[in-house]
Amino acid sequence: MLKINAAGDKCPIPIVKTRNALKAMNWNGTVEITVDNAAASQNLEKFAVQNKCRYSCTENGGMYTVTVTAGEGSGADAAAQTDEPTVDCISCGRIAPGTVVAISSKEMGNGDPKLGKMLMKSFIFALANAEQLPETILFYNGGAFVSADGSESIGDIKAMEEEGTEILTCGTCIDFYGLDKTPPVGSVTNMYTIAEKMTSARRLVKP
Amino acid sequence: MPDNIIFCSGGGCGAKLGAGVLSRILGLLPRPSDKNLLVGFDSSDDAAIYRISDDTAIVSTLDFFPPMTDDPCMFGQIAAANALSDIYAMGGTPVTALNIVCFPETMDINILGKIMQGGADKVSEAGASLVGGHSISDDSIKYGLSVTGVIDPNRILTNTGCRTGDMLILTKPIGVGIVNAAKTVGEASQSSIDEALSSMTFLNKYAAAIFGRYSGIHACTDVTGFGLICHLLEMLASEHGAELSFADIPLINGAYGYARDFLITGAGQKNRSHAGDRVTFELDDFAAEELLFDPQTSGGLLASVSAAEAESILEDLKDEGIKAAIIGKVTNGKGIIVK
Predict the structure, then answer these.
(1) Distance CA B164, CA B331 (A)
(2) What is the ipTM of this complex?
(3) Residue B328, SS3?
(4) What domains does chain A contain, in order, with CATH numbers?
């Protein structure tokens, strides 16, 4: 079961998160969403009913825990909506347009290098399993090791690439560290592209 | 894109408190007894009306809300069009307006300048004078206006007064709340966003002027945060019912698709809860229901007009370029039936 914390999110964000999560699991599975107002839980109930999903909700101290379970026959209504031409983002799937993640080191944060590496691995894993994926991930300087042969994160990065995330590794960095000129995932890029991606990002994430 | 960090997602009339919550506390306030107060808050009308002589009364209203667009000037225009609308919904003419401003001290003051310029532009288009205002430092931006208008006390359009057999005319498309919800998650098309913005900045002045030429306008209100259904329920009170034809109701292009995609608001759900069993949907169309409950910001006028004059009024509205439609009729039943 996938858990989504949508407390603090205003509608329609809790519904969109739920919809994207169920789509990602091909309308087969359970999503548990936490919301902080009754209207959001009621909107999720309408969403569940319309998409032939099972719905339940428990309230505790103003927080609503909603479960939506999709199975056979679920999501038919939503699937029919892909022919709605004005919704141009359906084709983007899980991609959050404009979100760029910059990985500049083998490690996440400053401190013990061993812990830093563990954190980076788990960050990439969490990123790959979030309901929304970045449009682009940039790997440069020590970050080039994360997208290089032998990195423990290759599987997660490949999974994101398959969903449509653009994976770019700095060519100068590959040369400098003597890494394989053809990385196992994504493509090689230069500083102009890196600078352009970072400055035009709607949201730049640097762990 | 530094401009989109300043504006919150729950702006416009969607930020209104729920109708149910409000009516409970308003019921506890003392009722004024001044005989010159022709319309007070007990009738849930759009503005208060106070008679100062046999042929003149003043109309008072105020409205303000958080932004629903990244464009400060556009936000100012929408907030002003929305505040002025209450005067038009009563049949009045706005004469003066005062700014209401909440603005963070740490934010670029030029943004506030653009908001107030947008507001001033609409006040000027309305033919009224911007004469002052009050501003306080706050965590987030809110803007609106307190507007005073004048009216002939014998020609007041209250929101109750509809008669069985009346036709219901709506003067703007609905769906701006849903388009805005779609926009917050990046799923609204630019053409839908633009249509919603231009609808919200359009003054109800022009529709009101046409209504003023007819004698058969029995009731009028403007459609805002409570959505088309709840505003119509207020108009019908307990004496009348209505039949709406969803196919005849003008919509912002794209809004129907967003509603089908569940890009809906919390305020819309509050409206649905408030309407409860007073609405019967004879059509099986989830998106249609959501649109009818969708909170509007600076929505159109909803008028209950005599059937004899309805077609002529509609023609005049269309000649003026207003996207109006006859959307249903008033019955002697209870509640609203949507077909």
Answers:
(1) 5
(2) 0.76
(3) strand
(4) 2-80 (3.30.110.40), 94-205 (3.40.1260.10)
- Residue B180 forms contact with A (CB below 8 Å): no
Give the 3-state secondary structure of residue B90: coil
Q: Do B68 and B297 meet the contact criterion of CB atoms below 8 Å apart? A: yes
Q: Which two tokens stand for residue A69?
A: 């379970």
- CA–CA gap between residue B287 and residue B76 (Å, rounded): 30
Residues of A whose CB is below 8 A from B184 = 10, 12-13
Q: Give the residue among B111, B328, B331 at the shortest CA–CA distance from B229.
A: B328
Does B13 qualify as catalytic in the annotation?
A: yes
Active-site residue (options: B13, B73, B162, B230): B13
A123 phi-psi bin (left φ>0, alpha ψ -120 to 50, beta other): alpha
Q: Which domains does chain B have, with CATH numbers?
A: 2-155 (3.30.1330.10), 167-338 (3.90.650.10)
Residue B327 region by backbone torsions, left for phi larger than 0, else alpha for psi between -120 and 50, else beta: alpha
SS3 (DSSP) at A69: strand
Instruction: Evaluate if pTM is beyond 0.90.
Output: no
Output the six-digit token pair for A92.
Answer: 């983007």
pLDDT tens-digit readout, A47-74: 999 999 999 999 998 899 999 999 888 8
**Residue with tokens 């098309």, as numbered in its chain:** B189
